[in-house]
Specification:
alpha+beta, eight-stranded mixed beta sheet, binds zinc ion
Length: 449
């Protein structure tokens, strides 16, 4: 994620000097849901109509494998206030299941009681039908919003870090990546959805259209995204990544007409795809696509295969490079917990330096960008904040993104990457990065917890 306007709000807290024990186990996310299952696939079937108020309705079918014996309850993260409204129905092979949410504490945990008890290693599925209005923005917690942008209603999602539950029932966990996704989105015919992966069909159904997207790479729940507005699609040809001609495309609101100069700024991502592939190994999702789509938040977000960009970011060379770099650092390999956010943001910030070095047409000045990283990393507001974020600051999105940690992981993380390059020299540094991005135990998975 990259703020177009840096967040100036931070909490002044005592310098903690943390040597924090990290309490999160390898098999669950911060909320601890889904600890007895390995999520394999989600099939999303959603109705999204930006013509009316912000609302999401439909179903999520989760295909899973049990990881222990005696499984008769499964838990998912889901916003209780928005969706525990009488239209929440869970079916196990057509049989209605009992559902409940906690009365206190973290109330956004849906417990499903199955009509059977499953043994270990059992492949199975449940379908959650729901209908509701996701919550309003709360500070840094965006989740799912709808805004009028360039004269058109734009529905969009931004889950990082804990707002996936605000629009779909998920196992919010970077360590159990979802192996693949299917999106089936019904929307009024004038509208068009954006989602991760490849658009495989587009069918007219009365006054609606039904769009199906498939994504066949492992993905963390916070990187799952949809948006919907009256998009115009800009197909920008293909880029050759290791012998695969991969399409590059932009979805831009119908209310805008990008100039040729603006399109040229966006198209720098095509050269960066080649340069970053040379440095870090092939673009991780080359069998699908890389694209950028417009959303209504004032920054960029590295949704897997399809980065979401506010209009100002869509034409900002630094943000374009940053979100692309995340496809290797944050998406292909993801931090195991939010404590280690710097592994994504530090490398992505350094990606802006590299884009300036390798693709001069971006106009990015690598010396000044690195200098700014160093100045910020050294300033009095950030000095004393390590790269690792303590537990108290990862409890929710506001604690995470409105604390100084939310800024320091970019700058201090970026300077750690820069320091490693200086110490190792380019040959060893980039070989080490390639080894890191292609390690069999990390690839399409997560960093060690
Ligand atoms: Zn970022």
């Amino acid at each position: 994620m990259k703020y177009f306007l840096h967040i100036a709000i931070f909490l002044l807290i005592n310098n903690p000097g943390y040597s924090q024990h990290l309490p999160v186990g390898r098999t669950s996310g911060n909320s601890g849901t889904g600890g007895n299952i390995d999520v394999k696939h989600h099939r999303f079937e959603w109705n999204i109509a930006p013509t009316t108020s912000k609302r999401i309705s439909g179903s999520v079918t989760t295909y899973f494998e049990t990881t222990q014996s005696g499984v008769n309850k499964i838990t998912f993260d889901l916003n209780k206030a928005s969706f525990n409204n009488g239209s929440l129905i869970v079916k196990y092979h057509g049989i209605n299941c009992t559902t409940s949410f906690p009365a206190s504490g973290n109330t956004d945990i849906l417990t499903i009681t199955l009509p059977v008890t499953l043994g270990n290693g059992k492949l199975d599925s449940v379908t959650i039908f729901y209908n509701g209005v996701p919550p309003a923005v709360n500070g840094q917690a965006e989740g799912c919003q709808q805004k009028s942008t360039a004269g058109y209603n734009l529905f969009y999602t931004l889950s990082e870090s804990y707002e996936d539950k605000d629009w779909w029932p998920c196992k919010a966990d970077m360590q159990d990546k979802i192996d693949s996704l299917t999106f089936i989105i019904t929307t009024p015919a004038a509208y068009r959805p954006a989602a991760n992966g490849v658009l495989v069909s587009e069918v007219t159904s009365g006054s609606n259209k039904i769009y199906t997207f498939k994504h066949k790479y492992p993905i963390a729940s916070y990187l799952v995204a949809v948006a919907c507005t009256q998009y115009n699609v800009y197909n920008r040809g293909t880029v050759n990544i290791g012998g695969t001609n991969m399409p590059v495309e932009y979805y831009i609101s119908k209310g805008r007409t990008p100039t040729s100069g603006q399109l040229a700024t966006m198209d720098a991502c095509k050269q960066e795809l080649v340069e970053f592939s040379n440095l870090f190994g092939d673009y991780p999702f080359k069998n699908e696509k890389y694209g950028m789509y417009e959303f209504a938040w004032g920054g960029g977000m590295e949704h897997q295969t399809f980065s979401a960009m506010g209009w100002g970011s869509f034409t900002n060379a630094g943000v374009i490079a940053h979100e692309l770099m995340h496809q290797w650092f944050g998406d292909k390999v993801t931090m195991a917990t939010w404590h280690h956010l710097w592994l994504a943001e530090g490398f992505a910030s350094y990606g802006e330096v590299l884009a300036g070095e390798k693709v001069p047409s971006t106009g990015l000045d690598p010396v000044s960008i690195r200098g700014n990283l160093k100045t910020d990393a050294n300033n009095s507001a950030e000095r004393g904040y390590g790269c690792i974020i303590p537990q108290a600051n990862i409890e929710n999105s506001n604690a995470l993104w409105e604390s100084q940690y939310g800024n320091s992981v970019y700058n201090r993380g970026g300077m750690v990457v820069s320091m490693l390059r200086t110490l190792l020299g380019d040959e060893k540094f980039f070989q080490a990065c390639r080894n890191y991005r292609t390690s069999p135990v990390l690839v399409y998975a997560c960093d060690p917890a």
